[in-house]
Design goal:
With 634 residues, the protein is an alpha/beta fold. The protein has two domains: 183 residues, no CATH class; 335 residues, Rossmann fold, CATH 3.40.50.1820. The chain has 22 helices and eleven strands. Strands 1-2-4-3-5-6-7-8-10-11-9 form an eleven-stranded mixed β-sheet, with helices on both faces. Helix 2 runs antiparallel to helix 6. The longest helix is centred in the N-terminal third of the chain and has 42 residues. The relative contact order is 0.08. Keywords: Membrane, Transmembrane, Transmembrane helix. InterPro entries: AB_hydrolase_1, AB_hydrolase_fold. It comes from Linderina pennispora.
Length: 634
């Protein structure tokens, strides 16, 4: 017998439903409370499991309602046919969730989806029993349920609301969110079917070895011959919020030019597994170093950092094995865009906030207290990432991230989009942002040496970053050497080849060309463009004595279009060739001959005269009036 006490909820089915409801409720609390306080309980997005457990609890309560109404002697289960249809739909949803997440190798989500099946089946079975019983009652002339005379007016109203309102409200909620979860699960399964992991997942440790996860390393042209030799390997680090697919064109450009290249997905991006909260930048850099060692990539390294990836490169040079780094390339890199923009607008709180950040930075990450630069802006950005992380399992972000036409070849466009549409993308952004966009910048502060600080103070520049390590640089034949040139400032004793490449559109103060018509916004942009340019000059003067600043100005040969901020996406072959030429060509020309060839002052961002890029070695106008050496890149 399925039930051991007639006409009550105390049956095998009822007890199982109550236990399952308790399990769903406790799981929801665990993921919501404990998961947020103690890193993560699961490898994936914990909000996926919160949604699955919440919908499971919802189905449990609905099944309990159906059974209790069926067994009641003084109640009537209305809408039996609708209950049967709803339960059948949720059964189908449960099976689809099992199939979708099992195929995409998320066993936990598949199991939680399967727990929907039992309450959904109970709803169908007991609704069907009720419908059949009521049909028999009608044949026998037994009237349908009416409020008993002994019921109070409030009790009668409550029963009416439960009988008529409760089903429709819960059906709409269950079907809507259940369908969204199924759409995302099946879409992820399809992405997993179409786009297999292109690189290698390498296990790394973090938080002093307490946790581990797998980091995705995707190499191009790294043949056995390259592995056994001493040719440098380009290591590409992406901009904030960008997966490895965003730089695959550049990596392929290096490979086509005969140089191996590897892209590394930071925690949660691309195919890397998510990291742990609180995500410490120094732990991430050490994980990158572990991934390179375990892949293994034993060759000398040339780091190419795009945007914030350039800041990660600078941090790597301070805390990881910088002795195997043979060169550094920074693409449109700023220490922190938010801070620089605030300073450009001459806000009085900027300098005080920066002083607080520097004073709170200890010699190690454990001694460093995270300081918000602008709590209001950072809290809003953090909430935005967290909110999208919450709704990612509901597929609501798929339409938001469906663009990228023209940024990727059609052959790889689908794979690129898939990395923005999974359940982990916004979790990765939320973890990396860490509640404050200045966390990565602050992690660099303990490594700023007095001589670099003195030069930047002399230049009246508010931001700080460390010079590259004096003893950095693996010995590689064929790397660019500018050792014969006198250093522009005694800010760094490193001779590591450094290429700083920036798109000139960032420095173009012509508001009309930027599409800005509002006078106030135009004033802001002009301030931003000047300070963006000045930042590149400061980098060139302080990171290394062997640094070159390249400005991508006019249309480039690859597509004859203006060199804007999308040059990493749209012009990977040209960019790879320009970087290879700067890094590997010997520069033996003496300073006097180079200066005689072409020179100009450093006060204008339009120093380049070639139709692609120009190389500059100069001091900023605020520090000296030294002439800028300009050599065109073929």
């Amino acid at each position: 017998m399925w039930r051991f006490r007639e006409h009550t909820l105390y049956s095998v089915q009822g007890i199982l439903l109550l236990l399952l409801a308790l399990a769903h409720f406790l799981a929801f609390l665990a993921y919501a409370v404990i998961g947020n306080k103690h890193g993560r309980l699961v490898k994936g997005n914990q909000f996926l499991y919160m949604w699955l457990s919440l919908l499971g609890l919802w189905l449990d309560l609905q099944a309990v309602f159906v059974i209790s109404a069926y067994r009641s002697t003084n109640r009537y289960l209305f809408w039996t046919l609708q209950w049967m249809a709803y339960g059948s739909a949720m059964c189908i949803f449960s099976v689809l969730l099992l199939v979708g997440y099992a195929y995409s190798r998320d066993g936990s989500a598949a199991v939680w989806g399967l727990t929907w099946l039992f309450p959904a089946v109970c709803s169908v079975v007991y609704a069907q029993k009720a419908r059949r019983g009521y049909q028999v009652d009608r044949i026998m002339g037994i009237p349908e349920f009416k409020p008993r005379l002994v019921d109070s007016r409030g009790s009668a109203l409550f029963y009416r609301l439960m009988d008529y309102a409760f089903p429709w409200i819960t059906w709409v909620f269950g079907l809507f969110f259940g369908l969204l979860l199924v759409i995302q699960g099946l879409a992820l399964a399809n992405d997993h079917r179409l786009y297999k992991t292109p690189g290698k997942l390498v296990p790394v440790q973090t938080h002093n070895g307490d946790y581990w996860y797998k980091m995705h390393v995707w190499c191009f042209g790294y043949t056995e011959e390259k592995q056994s030799g001493r040719d440098p390997v380009f290591v590409l680090l992406t901009e904030f919020g960008m997966p490895s697919t965003s730089m695959m064109g550049l990596a392929q450009g290096f490979a086509d030019a005969g140089h191996a290249a590897c892209i590394i997905d930071r925690p949660g991006y691309g195919w890397s597994e998510p990291g742990y909260w609180d995500q410490d930048p120094i732990d991430v850099v050490k994980s990158i170093n572990q991934a390179l060692d375990k892949y293994p990539v034993n060759n000398p390294l040339v780091f190419v950092g795009w945007g914030e990836g350039g800041v990660w490169t600078q941090l790597y040079m301070q805390v990881a094995d910088y002795t195997k780094v043979a060169g550094v390339v920074l693409l449109d890199t700023l220490p922190n865009q938010e801070i620089l923009q605030t300073f450009a607008l001459n806000k009085t709180t900027t300098l005080q906030n920066l002083r607080n950040m520097r004073s709170s930075s200890g010699g190690t990450t454990k001694a460093m207290t995270t300081v918000n630069f602008n709590k209001a802006i950072e809290a809003a950005a953090s909430r935005n990432f967290e909110n999208w992380r919450v709704v990612s399992p509901l597929a609501l972000h798929r339409a938001r991230n469906s663009g990228w036409d023209g940024f990727q070849p059609q052959s790889s466009l689908g794979m690129h989009r898939s990395r923005f549409r999974n359940n982990l993308y916004y979790q990765a952004k939320y973890f990396e942002y860490g509640g404050t966009g200045a966390k990565l910048y602050q992690a660099l502060q303990p490594y700023v040496k007095p001589y670099t600080d003195a030069v930047l103070i002399y230049h009246h520049w508010p931001l700080r970053w460390p010079a590259l390590q004096p003893n950095s640089g693996a010995s590689v034949t064929g790397l660019a050497k500018r050792d014969g040139q006198a250093p522009t400032d005694p800010a760094s004793f490193s001779h590591l080849p450094v290429v700083i490449l920036a798109s000139a559109k960032q420095f173009n103060s012509d508001c009309k060309a930027q599409g800005i018509s509002d006078s106030e916004e135009c004033t802001k942009w002009q301030a931003f463009s000047w300070f963006y340019y000045r930042q590149q000059i400061e980098y060139q003067q302080t990171l290394s004595q062997n640094a070159a600043l390249l400005l991508c100005t006019k249309p480039v040969s690859e597509d004859k279009r203006d060199c804007d901020v999308d040059f990493v996406w749209r012009r990977p072959n040209w960019l790879a060739a320009a970087i290879v030429k700067q890094i590997f060509n010997q520069v033996e020309t003496n300073t006097a001959a180079a200066t005689a060839t072409a020179s100009t002052t450093a006060s204008e961002p339009t120093a380049a005269t070639d139709d692609r890029t120009a190389s500059t070695s100069s001091s900023a106008s605020t520090s000296s009036s030294t002439a800028t050496s300009v050599s065109a890149i073929a």
